[in-house]
Amino acid sequence: MKEQSTTRGFAILSAATMMVKILSLLYIPFLRLIIGDEGYGIYGASYQVYAFVFVLTNSGIPVAISKLISELTAVRNYKDAVKGFKIARFILLAIGILMASLLLIFAEPLARAVHYNKAYLPILTLAPAVLFTSIASAYRGYFQGRGNMTPTAVSQVIEQVTNTVFGLIFALYLLKYGVEASYAGPPIGTSLGALASATFLIFYYERNKTFRVPKGYLNEDNRRLTTKALVRRIIKYGIPITVSVGMTYAGNIVDLYNTKVRLMAGGVPEVQATILYGFLTKYQQLLNVPIAIISSLSMAILPAISAAVAVGDRDRVKGNINYSLKLCFLIAVPCAVGLAVLSDPVFQMLKFGGGSYIMAYGSIVLILMSVMQIQTTILQSIGKLYTATLYSVLGIVCKIIANYFLIAIPSVNILGAVGGSVIGFAIPIILNHRIIIKSLGVRLGLLRHSVKPVIASAIMAAIIFIVRYEICGFLGLVTKGYVVNVILTTVSIIIGMLAYLVALMITGGIRKEDLETMPRKLVRLIPGFVMKRIR
């Protein structure tokens, strides 16, 4: 099994995650057609409960596996890398069985606790997914630690395709037993998707588990680690990451309860509060598409930075950090601007129903989430795991407090959740930036990396606005129905992407060394007059 470069690994994961997220977006209108807006809100509530249990089980140890294997491989201790994986895999399996059992037992009390009694059946049918994903996560961590992102990418696509197909089939089938029974359809699809993913990864591992060792390795005297030492490392890496991500999702659970209660306190009827929460869920689902690309970047750079730290290569550490921050802004800024400008047409195209105004106001959250995610990955890579956890928890507490007050204001209502998110991400970003600079003794200008993407995105937004609203409005095409909207929105997105790339090259946001990491076929498509402006 060959190791991939950070850039290639990121490209493979990005392509897969884009496919997965697009499938998940296309899934929503069909699901809404079957279970309705209230049903989608209940499904969103049950999924938040599942997501919390999922991250407690799967967030820390897979990252610990990736970090451990990349470090041990960097110092050519291959035997302990394999041994460490097998130990961590057993731990994950045991935790997966325990957490799936607890979810089965406490499904009904959990549904009552978050004020969504009808979410009981969806929570119950999501329990097997916890076990299957714990198995899949162990193997994903292993392959990522070895620098091979292909198995993770393929398994994600298999999981989402299975989830989408069987989720809709079971939702339709169970509808004959009543609307509430159909709410269990999508969770069954989730469990089957996780099972398919785990099966593929086990098969791939058995076919590709042999390490290719360099010449002379057998004559080297590598210091072996005891089982106790390996377990200690797994726990050392895994616990703070689990706490950090777990607290984020615990904050989401509190928000799940908090949002509905505070909306009702502001005078919103219960059914309407559930529908508004469904709007918020759709907004978050749409944000997850570009965030998935940033997650792919995080997965690709964590083993690269960890390996560089393990061998004491400070220049490579700094290079990877600057590379990740630059890519983060290059991706997140245009996505946020594009979603803000095209929020209403995109919601109409995806048949999301109402709630596009949340995206128009809340797309800034995408940039903040992306920056914080990369910063957290950097801190985890350089060993500042508990620091990253502490700052994340602080941000969550501030978010919950802000949401409590903002959502109850009648003129703000559901937009208060957006305001709380801005506060909850901004505080950790400031603190993370300071500790990274202090730890590495290097200047990392967030503004320096963001200026050119912001300028290029502003040019892109102006061009999209002119094409989508001014020219099409003048021709009377905007109000011509669903098919015309889909065509116009798709054309606007393509024109926006091209405008952004050209503006970025002209302003110097992309340099010649950046082109060296891009596929040659893609570079050949760049116009000559633009290539001349690239320094």
Automatic annotation (TrEMBL):
It is a multi-pass membrane protein. It is found in: Cell membrane. It holds the Pfam family Polysacc_synt. Keywords: Cell membrane, Membrane, Transmembrane, Transmembrane helix. The keyword Transmembrane helix applies. The chain crosses the membrane at residues 12-35, 47-66, 87-107, 119-139, 160-179, 185-205, 234-254, 289-311, 323-342, 354-373, 385-406, 412-433, 454-476, 482-510. PANTHER family: LIPID II FLIPPASE MURJ, PST FAMILY PREDICTED COLANIC ACID TRANSPORTER. This is Polysaccharide biosynthesis protein.
